[in-house]
Amino acid sequence: MKVHLKVWRQKDADSKGSLVDYDVDQVSAHMSFLEMMDTLNEQLILKGDHPVEFDHDCREGICGACAMTINGQVNGPVSGLTVCQLHMREFKDGATIYVEPFRATAFPLKRDLKIDRSAFDRIIQSGGFISVNTCQPVEANTLLITHDVAESAFDSAACIGCGACVATCKNSSAALFTSAKIAHLAQLPQGKAEAAERVLKMVAQMDAEGFGHCSNTEACEVKCPQGISVLNIARMNWEYARALVKKH
């Protein structure tokens, strides 16, 4: 099959970007979207042009680094997938495909399709951890956790921090990401001691990074590759309100 690409090219954050047209021939329906982009880059390198820069790592749907907006949809037309899991069989022969980076003020563009998601790192650094004094490891069976709580915490911890929730939200909210990290630790015995301090610091950092407010459209859950539930946001709001009452 053959596809016509309109790819966003931008030298750096300060330069003006634009969509550039490319034709890619001999595309197999079994190729992943990233493999098709690799084919394009091979063509560009052979011509002496600068390849299209995009992030990727595991290519197994684990890291979420391969973030792109494809035909106006975060990570492409299939919900619940990272771009590396998207295959060319989802597109018709001769299709025109628009490829752009995630658009969010808190995710500055670095070059082409690469964005800077270090805002997520700073949210975690503000309180998304458990303070532990180095000592002899505690016997696991001394901290009893019910199956339901363990499963719920694990579901929240499954968030890979890809930023799809931010890119698909009309307000560019990071509520799903932040709430998943808060809910994960708040449910476990080890995390309860710092729960109030954690939620206040992480929400404050989320706001400081310039993310928008959640308006409960639930688009974030639809496009999340890990299917993180918006119930985490409700949990975060509850933890936040409780922390404010405790503080005052």
Description:
The protein is an alpha+beta fold. 37% of the residues lie in helices and 11% in strands. It has helices at residues 33-46, 118-127, 147-157, 164-168, 175-186, 189-192, 195-208, 219-223, 231-247, and strands at residues 3-9, 18-24, 69-70, 73-74, 96-100, 109-111, 114-115. Strand 6 and strand 7 form a beta hairpin. Helix 3 packs antiparallel against helix 5 and helix 5 packs across helix 9 (231-247).
Q: Which term fits the overall shape? A: elongated
Strand line-up of the largest beta sheet: 2-1-5-3-4
How many distinct helices? 9
Strand proportion, as a percent range, falls in: 5-15%
The major pleated sheet works out as: 5 strands, mixed
Number of strands: 7
**Quaternary arrangement of the chains shown?**
single chain
Helicity level, as a percent range? 25-40%
- Poorly predicted regions: none
Full CATH superfamily name of the largest domain: Alpha-helical ferredoxin
Question: What attributes does this structure have?
Answer:
Ubiquitin-like (UB roll); elongated; alpha+beta; 2 domains; 9 helices; 11% strand; 5-stranded mixed β-sheet; Fumarate Reductase Iron-sulfur Protein, Chain B, domain 2; two-stranded antiparallel sheet; 248 residues
